[in-house]
Write a structure and sequence with these properties.
about 80 residues; alpha+beta; 3 helices; disordered C terminus
Length: about 80
């Protein structure tokens, strides 16, 4: 969350981060009423927020937790394909 979107790409590159970032400072502050950063949201294809969290930890524990949260949400999503046998 920054007022200068030009700072986002260099930060992501420097920290070797590969995830989507919403450069929407005023939207986040005024509409979502987010005061603490970083915020983590997992949203579906329609933009519906399924899970959200506050904070970041550079350890593998955080990465594992995020992967588990994504898998949980994906598992909860209705599937159009039957499971493979």
């Amino acid at each position: 969350m920054d007022e200068n979107p030009g700072l986002i790409a260099p930060f992501l590159k420097e920290h070797q981060l590969a995830f989507s970032v919403i450069p929407a400072y005023s939207y986040v502050r005024e509409t979502l009423k987010v005061l603490g950063i970083p915020q983590n949201w997992i949203a579906d294809a329609n933009g519906v927020v399924l899970l959200k969290g506050l904070g970041y930890d550079a350890t593998e524990k955080w990465v594992t937790g995020m992967k588990e949260a994504i898998a949980k949400v994906q598992g909860a999503a209705p599937s159009s394909n039957p499971p493979a046998k």
